[in-house]
Every structure is written in C-alpha cells, then in structure tokens.
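[09:14] KT: can someone run the structure on this one? pasting the chain below
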Amino acid sequence: MEKTICIIIILLLSMASITLAIETTPAGGVDEIKSLIKVSEAMDGDVVAYSWQAHVKIEDKLDKDELNETLKEFLGENLSKAVTETSKDHAYGEWYSEDTYNSLSIVVDEENGHTYIVYSVELSNEKCLINWHNNLHNKISHFGEPFVAVNIHKIYDGNFNSTLKEKNIQAAFNAANSTFNVDSKGEGYVGYIGYTQEIDNYVMVNDDKVNLHITITTDNTADVEYINIATPLIINSY
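[09:31] RB: done, structure tokens below
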C-alpha cells in the first residue's frame, strides 16, 4: 500500500491548529473512530470540526458520459441541491445535507487507465461522525472498497511551546496506547519518538484495522507559528 501525507494544517497569529487523523482499512470502523476521539480528548484545545474522507479506485477509465452518470448515481436525491461540474476527465459535486457538507470528486487517470473517487464530508459533532460513518461507508462502497481517513480538527488559543507540545504528544501516546486494540505480539504496535530538530514528535498506531500518525512541527518566526499534525493516508496499491 502506498502512503501519502493527506493533511496539512497551518496555525496563524498564535492560534494553534491541531488535526488528529486515522485511516481505516475496510475492517476498521466505529470502534476506531471512538478511539481517535479519546486521543483527541487527551490533547489541549477545542474541537472546531470533524471530517471524513474515502478513496475508491475504479479499474476502468470512464468517459465524460460515464463520469456524469456516476456523479448522478452517487448524488441520488441530492442531485437537485448540488452544485456540479463535468469535463472529459473530471466530475465534481458539492452539497449540504443534514449536519454535513459533502464534496465528491471523480478523476480519470489517463496514464494508468483508472478512475478515482474521493468523497469528503465535514460533520458538526462527534455523535454525528459516529452515527454517519456506516451510512457514508455504505454509500461509497457501492463503487468499490474504500479506504477511509477520519479527522478531528482542534484549535488551541495561545503559545504552543515545546513543553506544551511534549505534554500533548505524550498524552496522545498514552491515550492511543490504552484505547486502540493493538496486538502485543508485534503484529500491531504503538510507537513513540521524542523531539528532534526538524520533526518534533510522532505517535503511531498500526494494527490490522487502523493507522494513526501524528506529527507536530513549529516555526515561531515573525509572530507566526505553524503546527502541523499529519497522517499518511492509506490507499490501495494503484
């Protein structure tokens, strides 16, 4: 499986922006989301957003008509309230529904002869995230086996100094170690790496269902601080 960094969060004017994320294989689900919430609760700051994203690969290269039909099929009853756009190699739609903002992108990979669907949803609260997960998963599973990334975005209003960073990454590690179901035989693991100059901290969880990778970096120049907590997105071997 390939891994790519999927989240880059920027903090401006001493307002720390923190994102926690997990990626679940098809075996992952609500229990893993609840574990991510526990990790989030262990860290400082206030939650400002929840998001859910799935990637699916379609083996065929769709033409413009097929892209349009796939878009319509996916939107279903939401078609009338969606803003849509279709070209020869891309279809896009965005719409609001109860407690969610949705966006769908269908992109043709001309070189490799495949088509990729990316379905992103912003949700209003953790209960909504948990309740909607299976519905969202089932919706995109119709088109192929998805790999899902779930994100919690937090804001910390203040100076996120090195002491606070260390406190939060240790809290995240402890919470991950106690909430994720990790095989002690080494098939799964929770790893913790301390401070380095370029990359400050990692918390990693890896078992048969989920991966969690948190990175925190800072740049305190010109009264602007950047805090980046990112995770690799697991996608199928393209």
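[09:33] KT: thanks! The chain has one domain: 2-235.
[09:34] RB: yep, looked fine to me
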